Amino acid sequence: MSDLRVAVLGVGIMGADHVARLTSTISGAHVAVVNDYLTDKAEQIAAGLPGCRVVADPLDAIADPDVDAVVLATPGPAHEKQLLACLEHGKPVLCEKPLTTDVETSLEVVKREAELGKRLIQVGFMRRFDHEYAALKAMLDSGELGRPLVLHCAHRNPAVPPSFDSAMIVRDSLVHEVDVTRFLFNEEIIAIQIITPSANPGAPDGVADPQIAIMRTASGKHVDVELFVTTGVAYEVRTEVVAEKGSAMIGLDVGLIRKTAPGTWGGQITPGFRERFGQAYDTEFQRWVDAVRHGSSTGNYVDGPSAWDGYAAAAVCEAGVQSLNSGKPVEVTMVARETIAGA
Amino acid sequence: MSDLRVAVLGVGIMGADHVARLTSTISGAHVAVVNDYLTDKAEQIAAGLPGCRVVADPLDAIADPDVDAVVLATPGPAHEKQLLACLEHGKPVLCEKPLTTDVETSLEVVKREAELGKRLIQVGFMRRFDHEYAALKAMLDSGELGRPLVLHCAHRNPAVPPSFDSAMIVRDSLVHEVDVTRFLFNEEIIAIQIITPSANPGAPDGVADPQIAIMRTASGKHVDVELFVTTGVAYEVRTEVVAEKGSAMIGLDVGLIRKTAPGTWGGQITPGFRERFGQAYDTEFQRWVDAVRHGSSTGNYVDGPSAWDGYAAAAVCEAGVQSLNSGKPVEVTMVARETIAGA
Amino acid sequence: MSDLRVAVLGVGIMGADHVARLTSTISGAHVAVVNDYLTDKAEQIAAGLPGCRVVADPLDAIADPDVDAVVLATPGPAHEKQLLACLEHGKPVLCEKPLTTDVETSLEVVKREAELGKRLIQVGFMRRFDHEYAALKAMLDSGELGRPLVLHCAHRNPAVPPSFDSAMIVRDSLVHEVDVTRFLFNEEIIAIQIITPSANPGAPDGVADPQIAIMRTASGKHVDVELFVTTGVAYEVRTEVVAEKGSAMIGLDVGLIRKTAPGTWGGQITPGFRERFGQAYDTEFQRWVDAVRHGSSTGNYVDGPSAWDGYAAAAVCEAGVQSLNSGKPVEVTMVARETIAGA
Amino acid sequence: MSDLRVAVLGVGIMGADHVARLTSTISGAHVAVVNDYLTDKAEQIAAGLPGCRVVADPLDAIADPDVDAVVLATPGPAHEKQLLACLEHGKPVLCEKPLTTDVETSLEVVKREAELGKRLIQVGFMRRFDHEYAALKAMLDSGELGRPLVLHCAHRNPAVPPSFDSAMIVRDSLVHEVDVTRFLFNEEIIAIQIITPSANPGAPDGVADPQIAIMRTASGKHVDVELFVTTGVAYEVRTEVVAEKGSAMIGLDVGLIRKTAPGTWGGQITPGFRERFGQAYDTEFQRWVDAVRHGSSTGNYVDGPSAWDGYAAAAVCEAGVQSLNSGKPVEVTMVARETIAGA
């Protein structure tokens, strides 16, 4: 199967990240087209990617027959028109949140896709793909915790851009917890209340920060969310489900913590080397592939342990086996590295 | 730059994992050739990969002009001959540990590569690429902990195959801590002692498990390693450096824990959303690309939040902003999903 | 100074605990009088305590000239009358919560004590004395966290008696968090809302459990409390302060966890042996004193490590010092214990 | 039963701590006699304790008919003679470690006590009374972990007095782990080796710090201890038992952590309020008793929440119950505190 030819619309911070991701990390796709209202930015990015063109008009990029799929990282107000174009041309699209900037146009997009009879639009609520959220969801779906009752969330940013206002805390921060709630509980939210405690002295003038959101789902589950975007500390996203048979937390920087009968708390130990070191193997291979691809120009096809490292390990293990057999300390015998030119 | 054409020699558990990794995860490379002494196994794997051939003799695979690089996942005793062939044909090779099965042949391989004057051999000590080990190494290199003095390691497996013997605990388990020691301390190990406490009742007859390895480095640093391969619990790999100005531990399932003056312990909070959710974005994109590539046969180009999810989030946030402005609870207004056929 | 002669009124579960505490743990006081409306219970407890009498009427006990101070562990409805009697006779009183069962009588008690011009009444909000709450309070008072903004609490019981009703969750559970809020923030609570999510299937019929309390303090700080008294798991009391310069949590079974700039989380390591082992010393001494006091009847004046244990330690350390000097393993030389009759 | 009259011999840092402990914390005993070779120090301490005398000669103090029991906090070289005197006069004695300063005299003391036919000597290995060690011991004795195999210990001090030498690390620090090993495993240590890595740059000249002790018990269990007394960080005492069915650790500042099948790690949640708040109740009562005993001079018989605190809690809970019934936010009604003079 040939690689997917993707058009990335909008190459600001987020879009540029996605270009890099599709180029260096994702298998089976490459960036064929980039577009941005800042043409220079688009040109600059395309210049670094062999086989990537700039298309000046986002609608042209969507219509382009040599584009198989679209990533939307344009500003929210542009989404409606671009999403409808994707639907019109039958192009699958991964759309950064928000879908659109208001409820009516969002509903319109939903209806138009439904009329087409095939699903083309995915929205970028990436938390559903985070391994901790996935583990929490799996735990809930397994029934281990029984019926969920309450969800506590905290969403803390160290700082926000100067233009941030009170409503953006709802639209840009809370929106993630809205999706998390719907994802974890498989039901809609039917009521919401925003509480504004007296503000953090460090928040910009006039911005109500922190805020507390209180939500209620269709079946009566309670959700509370602390939103605090000027903590000065770090990026903390924490989620705790309290359920009929126990509770579970993620986001404490220590993996999923469960508290279940009979009175213990704790997490999971990695069951095997694949789970523990899967990331290490992936990184090792990617860095090796990259080194080999550039090897003809550098003369070095290695980015990691060398043959010498393999030799040294063999020498120590050899001595170890001798000690195992004799029960006595053993000196390690190795040639001096400098006696081998080039090693 | 065109994709690297890789030959994977040996497609047992490890080699098959690497084939999958190169195919679905790694960018810039694909598996062009597979080989195994079990020909059926190789045929079966090649059949699932478009453009992948079986080559019956591993040395032919190495010599093949349409192979750019080699992954060695064959049994250890085959490594020497295959590595020398890679050197002869100038093929970069990623060799699963051990380099070779004894010290003399390992040294021979080192010398031959040194004579070539370019580095072609990388050994698969993957822990150097693990994010916790990398963080620990970075911390040591930064000088924050001062001079390292002692290294405590534990290497625990829940179980091992029936054929495991006492020396394999040294050669196959301890070998990783040998490399970790050399990696973290940048110096050679000069002496080793293996202590065998009374054995775990659950260990196979005659196998000395657990074992304690005591090592000393050139500059006099002490390393101890608990090796215990029949714990029945889980896979635990723990490493603690004790240094002049504090200590740091990894492998407690809670990230890197540092203990430094003035008397606090703790870890790092994720500084931003890229660090916290980078993996989520990667997974999101890979799954979306995969869904889109198969969309023409399934009619579904989405594997994640749908347009409806975007609409629902918009509706809740809209109500949230109303509550923010009014200070009162607000009901969420949404159309019923079943009124839109296909949504 | 002679011991305080205390009257304990009410010797149910709580009162009986307090009798034991005053007898075996607290220095400088003993139980001189017990009283309970179940006279048998009181008689039984008094019989086990040399010098302790039963007084049938609680008001007589309060008035008794041989009673220096009173502990009130009677049911709440009895408190008003008994507290007023304590004030009348000038007797210091430690009163289990609630002060009285309604606001008007509580205020009356406050006024009567104020008229006396000396403080005689202490209320049993024991959390203020818990080392974690004390550490959290000290941290807030130190200014390290800046201005507190939000308080998140959880109060979970594994189960409650069958007679528990929805209002008791407020009066008997929430009351502790009410006091904790006032203690930590040094200000009054000015508004409260109780939210009742759909109930835990395991809660008794008609009992709204869990409940969420939302409170606001005079200066606008937000407090939320999850109250959940039928979790089936364990007793969990958790408190997190979110403040201008960071946050801190207690009750995660891991001591006080602080999250402060620049992006780290963690706790305090015990600074010295007194802090680490103070409890051990106290327990050691109390058990030794108890053993010695009963030694004449048992012939054993020891409840801990014996002379033999001291000898064995000396033998090992002696060998250790030899090894330190020689750099070689040393066998430990000890006589066989059975060669010394009675050792 | 009347209070035990205790003679404390040696009132340096440790002895003075024990005097305070017996006076303010321990129930059923008081300090009747103090002694120190620095007579001024003894006089000063006795002056602050009603009913406490100085006795100039420690042997006179032991022989004193008005002394029921002895605490030995004198220097180690004085122990032998003083312990033998305690045995001669039949006085129970709690002796700070070491029992005596060499193996021969320790054995002599053991024999003399054995001849008496009653146990009078307890040695101050206080770790056996620490709640974490007690929990670890209980876990081992329960059989939950199966047969113990390996013990890893770390003993770290931030700093030591200038006079500290290499042998004191064995005699004064390791001695605790020697006793812990014997306590946890119920068997003797039969061999020991001290390893001296290259020294911490911050250690005093000529002091071998850190040291690694390797010990073997009678049944073949392995014990290793890192001893490091100039860490500059904090006081850390850590112990991990690795056993047939899992492992358990204490001393990580997070309580006992167990790792047992099927692959989870974690701790225990406090089962109930007595376990969670027992210390708080004890502290509450002790501070209340102390306040009441001094109340006649201060006019204040309270050291904790006041009647006003009880009233405020009642007012908030009253409003809470109204909100529970109405489902609406409720303002809290309270009188202003300043309207009640003296409240």
TrEMBL record, chains A, B, C, D:
HAMAP family found in the cross-reference section: IolG (MF_01671)
Domain Gfo/Idh/MocA-like oxidoreductase C-terminal, chain residue ranges per copy: 137-332
Lineage per the UniProt record: Bacteria, Bacillati, Actinomycetota, Actinomycetes, Mycobacteriales
A biological-process GO annotation: inositol catabolic process
GO molecular function: inositol 2-dehydrogenase (NAD+) activity; nucleotide binding
Keywords annotated in UniProt: NAD, Oxidoreductase
Official protein name in the record: Inositol 2-dehydrogenase
Chain's role: Involved in the oxidation of myo-inositol (MI) to 2-keto-myo-inositol (2KMI or 2-inosose).
Gene3D superfamilies given in the database record: Dihydrodipicolinate Reductase, domain 2, NAD(P)-binding Rossmann-like Domain
Domain (Gfo/Idh/MocA-like oxidoreductase N-terminal) ranges: 4-124
The gene coding this protein: iolG
Domain of life (superkingdom): Bacteria
Catalysed conversion reaction: myo-inositol + NAD(+) = scyllo-inosose + NADH + H(+)
Pfam families membership: GFO_IDH_MocA, GFO_IDH_MocA_C
Family from the record: Belongs to the Gfo/Idh/MocA family.
Listed transmembrane segments: none
Quaternary structure (record): Homotetramer.
Native organism: Mycolicibacterium aromaticivorans JS19b1 = JCM 16368
